[in-house]
Design goal:
Strand order of the largest sheet: 1-2-3-4-5-7-10-11
Bound molecules: beta-D-fucopyranose
Strand content: 5-15%
CATH topology: TIM Barrel
Distance between the termini: 23 Å
Order of helices and strands: EHHHEHHEHHEHHEEHHEEEHEHEEEH
Number of strands: 13
CATH architecture: Alpha-Beta Barrel
Number of domains: 1
CATH superfamily: Glycosidases
Helix content: 25-40%
Structural class: alpha/beta
Shape: globular
Radius of gyration: 20 Å
């Protein structure tokens, strides 16, 4: 393998957000209700009863937010399209005003020289679809492909990269298996059909997007590598079960056309489904935050693993372990596992929450080390072509409400004032140097 030095000049430096977390305006211009609106109304679901009715008011303030992205010198913006704005009931009639909003947004990106990388589904499922079974219902996959076609017919001429789903693992695990995210069902392994139906929706959407003229297509998968609690065979087996259920379940069908060993039968998988799911994609999106400690389950547990801490490493404000080298290993493992079947990778999310200070040296250190880990993987021959910081703005962090602060830009939720943090200037300088160095403390080894 020819040694590569650093990032290519056309590397896609960007930032990422999602509709539900920033837009607000949940009742405006004909938007329908999503599962997350419903979930926020259920007592006890969201810390301190927060909801996303206003969020960052991005629906009204988007020109200012796009200016902030342009001010970074970034090349690309990953945002998401709210399905309930486009198709309020999840099927049937299109809400023109909803589609118009995204039309203006992609025009606004083009005016600023930014590439549009929309995600079609970042967890805000139209409530009427959930009422019909949500992702437990196979039919939702077909509805998703119809919605994808509607959006692409309008925007395909200006979209650089389509991202079908965001983190189907989290929807399955947190939404349907553990019940801590919308729609709040605790089906444990009974939630496996939601993985398959999302993947099927992805595959059907790939073909619908191509038919509508999409240029490049990706999925954004979360990779949370398991770190076995010890070398005991029970812990190693639990770590393998975790990796199969939460990581490889979402890449093997797409890149190999098979499921890994999930330890249970999959009666909901029909003939031909895996061919649909394995439709070629142009980019694999990798969202990475941290590894997780995994130990053998206790007697009678519903799952074949137990999640534990990763000992001896620092943690972010949310308590997530900081292990930059695990990102390098994820990238190398993907290359080993899929070989020539692995498309170019983009890191579609990477970031951390710390307290709300503007002098956020911890975030700079975190990002510097994670960019360093990607650079190391590139130099070891992995084809990585983009990196999107999560997130441009502080935003509504799901069940944690507004408490975690992930933004390069601080948001004052009383006034909606945006104030760039030190990490914003660091990232701007990093981008300006082609990924060689940022301002502040740069160059630390991962
Ligand atoms: C990811 C989600 C994103 C954000 C970050 C912190 O799992 O895709 O919306 O909440 O975590």
């Amino acid at each position: 393998m020819k040694p590569v030095s650093g990032f290519s000049p056309d590397f896609q430096w960007g930032v990422a957000t999602s509709a539900f977390q920033i837009e607000g305006a949940t009742g405006e211009d004909g938007r329908g209700v999503s599962t997350w609106d419903t979930f926020c109304r259920e007592p006890g679901r969201i810390r301190d009863g927060h909801n996303a009715d206003v969020a960052c008011d991005h629906y009204h303030r988007w020109p200012e937010d796009l200016d902030l992205i342009a001010g970074l010198g970034a090349r690309a913006y990953r945002f998401s399209i709210a399905w309930p704005r486009v198709q309020p009931s999840g099927s049937g009639p299109v809400n023109a005003k909803g589609l118009d909003f995204y039309d203006r947004l992609v025009d606004g990106l083009a005016e600023r020289g930014l590439a549009a990388a929309p995600t079609l589904y970042h967890w805000d499922l139209p409530q009427p679809l959930e009422d019909a079974g949500g992702w437990m219902n196979r039919d939702t996959a077909a509805r998703f492909a119809e919605y994808a076609a509607i959006v692409a017919e309008r925007l395909a001429d200006r979209v650089e990269l389509w991202i079908t789903l965001n983190e189907p693992m989290v929807v399955m695990a947190y939404g349907y298996a553990f019940g801590v995210f919308a729609p709040g069902q605790a089906l444990m392994l009974g939630a496996l059909p939601t993985a398959h139906h999302q993947l099927l929706g992805h595959g059907l959407a790939v073909s619908a997007l191509r038919d509508a003229g999409a240029r490049r297509i990706a999925i954004a998968n979360n990779h949370t590598p398991a770190q076995a609690a010890s070398d005991r065979p029970e812990d190693l087996a639990a770590a393998e079960a975790f990796d199969n259920l939460l990581n490889w379940q979402f890449t093997d069908p797409i890149l190999r056309g098979v499921y890994p060993d999930l330890g249970v039968p999959l009666p909901h998988v029909r003939d031909g489904d895996l061919d649909t799911i394995a439709a070629p994609i142009d980019v694999l999106g990798v969202n990475y935050y941290s590894p997780v400690g995994v130990a053998a389950p206790s007697e009678g547990d519903a799952l074949p693993f137990a999640m534990t801490d990763v000992p001896g490493v620092p943690v972010t404000g949310m308590g997530w372990p900081v292990v930059p080298d695990a990102l390098r290993r994820v990238l190398l493992t993907l290359r080993e596992r899929y070989g020539a079947a692995l498309p170019p990778i983009q890191i579609t999310e990477s970031g951390c929450s710390y307290d709300e200070s503007l002098e956020d040296q911890h975030r700079i250190d975190y990002l510097d080390a994670h960019v360093g880990a990607v650079r190391a993987a590139v130099e070891e021959g992995v084809d990585v072509r983009g990196y999107y910081v999560w997130s441009l703005l502080d935003n509504f962090e799901w069940a944690e409400g507004y408490h975690p602060r992930f933004g390069l830009v601080h948001v004052d939720y009383e006034t909606q004032a945006r104030t760039p943090r030190a990490s914003y200037r660091w990232y701007r300088d990093l981008i300006g140097s082609g990924g060689v160095r940022g301002g502040g403390q740069a160059g630390a080894a991962p």
